[in-house]
Design a protein that fits this description.
By secondary structure, the chain is of the alpha+beta class. It folds into 3 domains: 261 residues, Bira Bifunctional Protein, Domain 2 (BirA Bifunctional Protein, domain 2), CATH 3.30.930.10; 95 residues, Rossmann fold (3-Layer(aba) Sandwich); 65 residues, Translation Initiation Factor IF3 (2-Layer Sandwich). It contains 12 helices and 25 strands. The strands form 6 sheets. The chain has an 11-stranded mixed sheet with strand order 3-7-8-14-11-10-9-22-25-21-20. Strands 16-15-17-18-19 form a 5-stranded mixed sheet, sandwiched between helices. A 3-stranded antiparallel sheet has the order 4-6-5. Helix 2 packs antiparallel against helix 6. It is globular, with a radius of gyration of 25 Å. The two termini are 20 Å apart. The structure holds zinc ion (ZN).
């Protein structure tokens, strides 16, 4: 299946052929992580933990089950999630007095505890996060990593003394997104959702969105300002330095295994997936090219090379299977290993190693003694090139319009006065979603695409994946 011909089929085929998941589990949307796929997810989780630990967030781990009465406290929140919740109604043979639900997200598990933890201004800011599985009953067709019912979820939850401090947290979240997305080579935009599309219970929501090869957007994560919307029903109060009791302001930030889906979708090609070096389970594969009579010498030198690279902290694999080199190349290209080192008897004679880049197919001869330094530099170049290429593709897929007629299947940018009527009109007339208005000032100066009123606000319109 070719990516350019049928992206959707190509994607479904690639996640299985590259062995990231095994979709044969008997419940739809609950995928089995294979060892290879799980290591990629773990690398991403490690990056997330590093960032949040470095910004003074503390990792916590809350229970999976939430009692119905706690869940029901914030009215908008329960309305938003009611149709997606899995319920536990029995314990053994006995019906439960209070039904329990599997967390769709953890506000209602955490906040009753936060109300006990937060006492005085000295307890603030409270910055926590957890990486757990959450459950949402998706009614649309499920798709590995992109639309699932059991979600591998990262969520941060913070409490602040006032609105300004919560806003500072959100700006820190933007910086974290920027650093992480660079590691994962994912181009993206921060887009503030419309009021009718924000997270249930939020004051406002900012989505982290990327564009897939089929022109659809994929939300990679979201950041929310709650103000006092949850602290009031959950009674999360602190005593300020004048002895007054005040409600905290709260924020959250969530991301999921969609990041793996985005990496596959954005960087993969007809040969397989292409992993960013920071994410790759195996960054470098060493392939000995054996020839009659020289097999022993080549194998020994390949082992030396492997040990040297491994010793320098790179994630390297020596493929010494008894199959033709062509078969090995094919397998590792399918699995997206960023860099392949080939070593044959002639290379040993000349004192060189062949470097083959997965991202662009480029092959270079490198002097044997420079291999480790050069490998490190090549991986850095691969990461920079992958991000640059993906950013260029996203830019090319972004099309500014001043009319809603004959829209291409792209990421559309248009002027919007901000009025709700004009917004609904855009969605109805285009049969697409208003993804949101940019958080960064893009210097827009134009007119609302519906009413023609001059505006400095643009809105991005697309079909969401
Ligand atoms: Zn308008």
């Amino acid at each position: 299946m070719k990516k350019a011909e049928d992206f959707s089929e190509w994607y479904n085929e690639m996640v299985e052929r590259a062995n990231l998941t095994d979709k044969r589990y008997p419940i739809k949307g609950m995928n089995v992580w294979t060892p290879y796929g799980w290591k990629i997810m773990r690398a991403i989780d490690t990056h997330i933990r590093e960032e949040f630990d470095a910004t003074n967030h503390d990792e916590v781990c809350f229970p999976l089950l939430i009692p119905e009465d706690q869940f029901a406290k914030e009215k908008e929140h329960i309305k938003g999630f009611d149709a997606e919740v899995f319920w536990v109604t029995h314990a053994g043979l006995n019906p439960l007095d209070v039904k329990l639900l599997l967390r769709p997200t953890s506000e209602t598990a955490m906040y009753p505890m936060f109300s006990l933890w937060v006492r005085s201004h000295a307890d603030l800011p409270l910055k926590t996060y957890q990486i757990v599985n959450t459950f949402r009953y998706e009614t649309k067709q499920t798709r590995a990593f992109i639309r699932v019912r059991e979600i591998h979820f990262f969520e941060s939850h913070t409490c602040h003394a006032d609105f300004d401090d919560a806003e500072r947290q959100i700006r820190e979240d933007y910086e974290i997104v920027e650093r992480l997305a660079r590691k994962w080579c994912i181009p993206h935009k921060l887009l503030k959702r419309t009021d009718w599309d924000k997270f249930p219970g939020a004051d406002y929501t900012v989505g982290i969105d990327t564009v897939l090869p089929n022109g659809r957007t994929l939300q990679l994560g979201s950041i929310h300002q709650y103000k006092e919307n949850f602290s009031r029903p959950y009674d999360i109060k602190y005593e300020d330095d004048k002895g007054e009791h005040k409600y905290v302001h709260q924020t959250t930030f969530g991301m999921s295994e969609r990041l793996v889906g985005a990496i596959v979708a954005i960087h993969g090609d007809d040969k397989g997936i292409v992993l960013p070096p920071d994410v790759a389970t195996i960054q470098i594969v060493v392939v000995p090219v054996l020839a009659k009579g020289a097999a022993e010498a080549v194998t020994a030198e390949a082992k030396n090379l492997y040990n040297e690279l491994k010793g320098s902290g790179l994630r390297v694999h020596l493929d010494d299977r008894d199959v033709r080199p062509g078969v090995k190349y094919y397998d590792w290209e399918l699995k997206g290993v960023p860099l392949r080192l080939e070593l044959g008897p002639k290379d040993i004679e000349k004192g060189v190693v062949t470097f083959a880049r997965r991202d662009n197919g480029e092959k270079t001869l490198i002097e044997r003694e420079r291999v480790t330094d050069e490998a490190r530099e090549t991986l850095a170049r691969i990461a920079a090139d992958m991000l640059e290429r993906a950013q260029k593709t996203m830019d090319a897929d972004t099309v500014a319009v001043d009319s809603l007629e004959n829209l291409p299947e792209k990421f559309i940018r248009a002027g919007w006065c901000g009025g709700e009527d004009c917004g609904h009109s855009i969605e109805n007339r285009t049969d697409r979603n208003m993804i949101g208005t940019p958080v960064d000032d893009e210097g827009f100066d134009g007119a609302c695409v519906v009413c023609g009123k001059p505006t400095r606000t643009s809105v991005y319109i697309a079909r969401a994946m």
